[in-house]
């Protein structure tokens, strides 16, 4: 899941590209939110 994104991000850290890192973090956050939403049943989300 997001471990692949983190590995790719670490591989790119030697290269300049702050915007790319921000995009990576945003993707990780989005994937974590999706994972949490998948784990939580809709009845518990009030």
End-to-end separation in angstroms reads: 26 Å
Total beta strand runs = 0
Q: How much helical structure, as a percent, in the residues?
A: over 70%
Per DSSP, the total helix count is 2
Mean pLDDT: 75
Percentage beta strand = under 5%
Query: Which class of secondary structure composition applies to the elements?
Result: mainly alpha
Q: Are there runs of 5+ residues with pLDDT below 50, and where?
A: none
Number of domains: 1
Biggest sheet overview = none
Mass-distribution shape: elongated
The H-and-E topology, N to C, reads as: HH
Radius of gyration: 14 Å
Summary of the model, kept short:
The protein has two helices and no strands.
Structure, explained:
The longest helix has 22 residues, at 18-39. The model has no long low-confidence stretch (mean pLDDT 75). The chain has two helices and no strands. The protein has 46 residues and is mainly α. The two termini are 26 Å apart. It has one domain.
Topology:
Layout: H1 2-12, H2 18-39
Question: Which features does this protein show?
Answer:
single chain; 46 residues; mainly alpha; 2 helices
């Amino acid at each position: 899941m997001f471990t692949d994104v983190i590995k790719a991000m670490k591989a790119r850290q030697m290269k300049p590209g702050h915007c790319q890192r921000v995009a990576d973090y945003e993707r990780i956050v989005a994937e974590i939110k999706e994972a949490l939403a998948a784990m939580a049943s809709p009845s518990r989300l009030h």
